[in-house]
Amino acid sequence: MIMMNHVSAGYGNRIVIEDITISLEHPFFAVIAGPNGAGKSTMLKVLLGIVKRKSGSVSVFGIDPEVDKKSIRRIVSYMPQSSTINLDIPLRVKEVVAMPLRIMGEDDESLVREALEIVGAEKYENEIFSRLSGGLRQRVLLARALVKNAKLILLDEPLSHIDSKGRGEIFSTLHRIHEEKGVSFLIVGHDLSVCALYDPYLILLNRRIVAHGRFSEIVKPKYLAEAYGSILLGEGFVVMGEEHG
Amino acid sequence: MVDPLLVSGLLSASLASIVAGLVGVLINYTKTQFLAIESLHMIIAASLVGGLVAWYYRAVPSELVSLITMALFIFIAVLMLEKGFSQDTSMGFTIAVASMIASLFSYYVALLTPGGVSYVYTVLFGNPFLIPLSSIVAYLLTGVLLVLVLLFLWRVFIYIAFDPETFEILRGGARIYRWILYMLIAFSAIYITRLVGAIPAHIALMMPGIIASRVEQRSSYIAITFSFLSSITSIIISYQVGIPYGALLGIISISLYLLLLVRR
């Protein structure tokens, strides 16, 4: 179970998220959505303990991430935004996936192969990561997040820079892993159209939590307007079966 | 009997090239070319300040003055970073200060000190043939130590360069490792400058990584092999025909890079 209780956090004097209170029962499949600058990535980083909270309390499976980082590293995985990855370095796919194990001093090739099989990228293990398509790179990064058998995986914009078909495939892969392995997922995303099929738990954020609950209950013009400032959300956005934009 | 000048040249160029090959790959991967150039400019200025002050105050060793000058440059760069200036701005400003001091002191070293022109030339362009064999033992030990440290931290540096956020989450201390990398780059720049001169050091540090980036498979090995072979070839041709080592190293490196560009 993860719990955030009246949490405020930010960088320097700037508060990015304010008075966040939420609890999610393991295993959950949740999406955090909101406009740019809403604090979505910051919320993930607070759960990882790398952005210090200014007030409130956080518990991830009973652990305070700021106090016991070592335990958090074991049970929580993180998939960063693809834009933070340096594609000039010619690492092979299997080296990328093995990275968390090697950093933690536990190199195990069978775990790497297993993780690649789960995301359906095993035949690319000897390819150079940067030569893969955007969708395949996201699959490999997902395999890297899975490799250490974490209970909770935090994903920061895993669907960005991918076409709509690829977005659907990645999202269904995430949902399948959640169903089959009982892994909890907390996914930061802009594009909610892919969510409709699986009705995930949705947290609408705009510095504060605007609304949270099942996707089908939350995606309503009232909440969306409050989160985004407008109900016209852009290209391809699906609200309760109607396509806007 | 092999000419001792050639032996000195071969050993100096070999040591410089191995360190340059390794560090060159890291410089390219971590996008720290600007930092390496900043280090080389600081070294030129610090060496010239050291030369002039040691000539004026005979009791003061030039290395100590150079070291203090380097420390002052680093202090300026770090102070600017702490005050919120970007890394590029602080480096750019420090390069400008170092270049101004180098211009000023090279003039007075050349004008006032005996053998001053030769000293300025050696700082800038080096003379690997004239490094005494007795000093090369010390360079060899330093080089081995430097290579061992680089290899020991190699994977950490690559992971930080590849995905700094995930490294920070999995292990922490990414910022400290990055500072260690910066120090190793600066130290390598000093090492290579002492062996082959500051201007050839620009080529030695930049080109292996740039060439390796054109070849995606086993690029680190290619960079080190290229660095070593081009250095040895340059020193042998330089010895035979009397063209400066740095010029030959540049001709070989740039030609190979252009060839790779045309082939693609």
Protein model, in words:
- The complex is a heterodimer of chains A (245) and B (264).
- By secondary structure, chain A is α/β, with parallel strands linked by helices.
- Chain A has a single domain (2-244), classed as Rossmann fold (3-Layer(aba) Sandwich).
- Helix content of chain A is 33%, strand content 28%.
- Chain A is globular.
- The model of chain A is unreliable at 234-245 (pLDDT under 50).
- Chain B has 264 residues and is mainly alpha-helical.
- Chain B has one domain (4-263): Orthogonal Bundle (ABC transporter involved in vitamin B12 uptake, BtuC).
- Chain B has helices at residues 4-29, 33-56, 62-82, 87-112, 116-125, 133-162, 164-170, 174-196, 198-213, 219-241, 245-263.
- Chain B is globular and about 55 Å long.
- The mean pLDDT of chain B is 91.
| CA gyration radius of chain A, whole angstroms | 18 Å
Can you tell me the number of structural domains of chain A?
1
Described by strand count, sense and barrel closure, the largest sheet of chain B is: none
Task: Quote the beta fraction of chain A.
Answer: 25-35%
> Over the alpha carbons, how many angstroms does the gyration radius of chain B reach?
19 Å
CATH architecture term of chain A: 3-Layer(aba) Sandwich
Helix share bin of chain A: 25-40%
Number of helices of chain B: 11
